[in-house]
Design brief:
The protein has 150 residues and is an all-alpha fold. The chain has one domain (16-141). It is 67% helix and 0% strand. It is built from 7 helices and no strands. The protein has helices at residues 2-6, 13-35, 46-56, 62-82, 86-104, 120-135, 142-147. Helix 2 (13-35) packs across helix 6 (120-135) and helix 4 (62-82) packs antiparallel against helix 5 (86-104). The chain is globular and about 50 Å long.
């Protein structure tokens, strides 16, 4: 029991980072695809709906900001999944999610079940991305393969 609670599981770190990259990267990709209307309920008008929502929040240059958020999620998610340019991608996605938490969920409090929805999801994912950036891409990444390190 003591091993389970306080044992050294550092050997599992490379596989753990790979699993984390796969799930968080996939999550971001799906959100980027949702803004394009490829997945989710938005359909062909998903991006226009997102732009309209940003405009209703008073976000300047809403069309540009919407596309930047979509690209950050889509391209950033792919890079995180592959472990390529991993830290810059994680930081860009983290900033995108902090903006979403502060602006997109303003007045909603923390819980996503609030009305309007709170910043729980975006804020938690931003913190996870910060930790991921601090941990690095791991052994099983293109960054490690191409640029060395572990």
């Amino acid at each position: 029991m003591n091993t389970l609670l306080t044992g050294d599981f550092s050997q599992a770190l490379p596989a753990s980072i790979l699993i984390l990259r796969a799930f968080v990267g996939s999550c971001l990709i799906v959100h980027g695809l949702g803004k394009l209307g490829i997945v989710g309920p938005g359909g062909a008008n998903a991006m226009q709906g997102f732009i309209g929502w940003l405009q209703s929040l008073g976000v300047p240059f809403a069309a540009v900001q919407a596309r930047m958020a979509m690209l950050a999620e889509l391209v950033g998610g792919i890079l995180i999944l592959l472990g390529l340019l991993y830290r810059p991608a994680a930081i860009v996605c983290m900033i995108t999610l902090i903006v979403a938490a502060v602006i997109g969920h303003k007045g909603g409090g923390y819980l996503i079940t609030n009305n309007p929805p709170g910043n729980e999801y975006a804020l938690n994912l931003a913190v996870i991305l910060l930790v991921m950036a601090l941990l690095g891409p791991g052994t099983y990444s293109l960054d490690t393969r191409l640029f060395g390190g572990n």
